[in-house]
Write a structure and sequence with these properties.
It comes from Ectothiorhodosinus mongolicus. Belongs to the class-II pyridoxal-phosphate-dependent aminotransferase family. BioF subfamily. Homodimer. It catalyses: 6-carboxyhexanoyl-[ACP] + L-alanine + H(+) = (8S)-8-amino-7-oxononanoate + holo-[ACP] + CO2. It holds the Pfam family Aminotran_1_2. By secondary structure, this protein is of the alpha/beta class. 42% of the residues lie in helices and 16% in strands. The radius of gyration is 22 Å and the shape is globular. It has 2 domains: 122 residues, Aspartate Aminotransferase, domain 1 (Alpha-Beta Complex), CATH 3.90.1150.10; 231 residues, Type I PLP-dependent aspartate aminotransferase-like (Major domain) (Aspartate Aminotransferase, domain 2, 3-Layer(aba) Sandwich), CATH 3.40.640.10. Strands 4-10-9-8-7-5-6 form a 7-stranded mixed beta sheet, with helices on both faces. It has a 4-stranded mixed beta sheet with strand order 1-2-3-12. Helix 2 packs antiparallel against helix 12. Helix 8 links the parallel strand 7 and strand 8. Bound molecules: pyridoxal-5'-phosphate. Pyridoxal-5'-phosphate binds next to helix 5.
Length: 395
């Protein structure tokens, strides 16, 4: 074999430039903008005043005075950093109280905090599955669920979006232990998974795990999420994961279910064991968010009114949003990445922040605008957005 000379070897980081250029050429290059100030509909981004329709702070709690006061009081009492993992000495009374409150609210035996939803999803799959197992997922599940399947080493099979019969065929064709996981409200589509049918199908046959990142705090009679909305108990949906950084306005996530599930995660979930606990002040702030949501139906009803109003006037203006459910995530599918990017850019120039979502986050040819609504939007804000959308799309 001929010897490679030193000059023939690629420098260790050289390939990165080429990859970045490929992303740019494919209109998939992502860029960050800089937000000055809190999360709220009218904000300053990159020095420009804009009206934002892209936050997951659906109830406007991220900048709520009561939640901020609870956070400050928490920091005063517990300090800022947790200083250690939950299994060492980072698990404070505030964390424990939050877990008990989450279990009570969701009607589950126990709950366990994780530092992020991404880590919770990784931890669940890794702790519950091994190489001989199977994990079945909706094709449109969030990236963290797909990565969770990869990390677990189990075989991953993806079924067509919301297709319960396709899942049934997969379950019938295997003898393996199976985990079925699904978004409850699909993060890039805004529709609800057929949870009652999934629960019925998996009962006795597979473990069902629901990621309620976008339903928790919003749906259900008390805001406890998609499982409350469909009245699904712990025996029907044994594994619930939800995040705290969206409607609850704070950060972090939790898993709720049986005592055995939670103990298994404490013993085996590496993303739980080998990481610093979230700050206790965040747990205190989250407890306040939960108190507000449970005691005051007003923010949730304002959000619902805004969603209904948006759907109503978008339909009047002939925008193809139809067929979507009344969740805070609404999408306008535009097709090619370039097209979606162009409209998002025009909106930006006109003072709106609405992101273009492109492959690989969504399937090829289905680039879209992802519009999220908040309880803090005024009807006038929504009028302005819909007028701008109608103008730019008809151009
Ligand atoms: C459906 C879904 N699951 C999980 C996550 C991850 O949650 P976190 O932001 O807390 O990591 C997100 C978004 O962030 C999501 O949309």
């Amino acid at each position: 074999m001929p010897k490679t000379t030193l000059t023939q070897l690629k420098k260790p980081m050289q390939h990165l430039r080429g990859r970045l250029e490929d992303l740019q050429a494919a209109h998939q290059y992502r860029q960050r903008r800089i937000l000055d100030g809190p999360q709220q509909p009218h904000q300053i981004i990159d020095g420009r005043r804009v009206l934002a329709f892209c936050s997951n702070d659906y109830l406007g709690l991220a900048n709520d005075v009561r939640v901020k006061a609870a956070f400050q009081a928490g920091a005063k009492h517990f300090g800022v950093g947790a200083g250690a993992a939950h299994l060492i000495n980072g698990h404070t009374r505030a964390h424990h109280h939050l877990e008990e409150t989450l279990a009570d609210w969701t009607g589950r035996q126990r709950a366990l905090l994780f530092s992020t939803g991404y880590m919770a999803n990784l931890g669940i799959a890794q702790a519950l599955l091994g190489r001989d197992d199977l994990i079945c997922q909706d094709r449109l599940n969030h990236a963290s669920l797909i990565d969770a399947a990869r990390l677990s080493g189990a075989r991953l099979q993806r079924y067509a979006h919301a297709d319960v019969e396709a899942l049934q065929r997969r379950l019938q064709a295997t003898q393996k232990q199976v985990l079925v996981s699904t978004d409850a409200v699909f993060s890039m589509d805004g529709d609800l998974a057929p949870l009652p049918q999934l629960a019925e199908l998996t009962h006795q046959r597979a473990m069902l795990m629901v990621d309620d990142a976008h339903g928790f705090g919003v749906l259900g009679s008390s805001g406890a999420g998609s499982l409350e909305h469909f009245s699904l108990s712990q025996s029907e949906v044994p594994i619930l994961m939800a995040t705290l950084g969206k409607a609850l306005g704070t950060a972090g996530a939790f898993v709720a279910g049986s005592d055995e599930l939670i103990e298994t995660l404490i013993q085996a979930a590496r993303t739980y064991i080998y990481t610093t606990a979230m700050p206790a002040a965040l747990a205190q702030a989250t407890l306040e968010s939960i108190r507000i949501i449970r005691e005051d139906p007003e923010p949730r009803s304002r959000l619902q009114e805004n969603i209904d109003y948006f759907l109503h006037i978008a339909k009047q203006q002939g925008l193809a949003i139809g067929g979507r459910q009344a969740t805070p995530i609404q999408v306008l599918i535009l097709g090619e990445s370039m097209h979606a990017l162009r409209i998002a850019e025009q909106l930006w120039e006109a003072g709106f922040m609405v992101p273009a979502i492109r492959p690989p986050t969504v399937p090829k040819g289905q680039a879209r605008l992802r519009i999220t609504l908040s309880a803090l939007h005024e009807q006038e804000d929504i009028d302005r957005l819909v007028d701008a959308l109608a103008n730019f799309i008809q151009e």
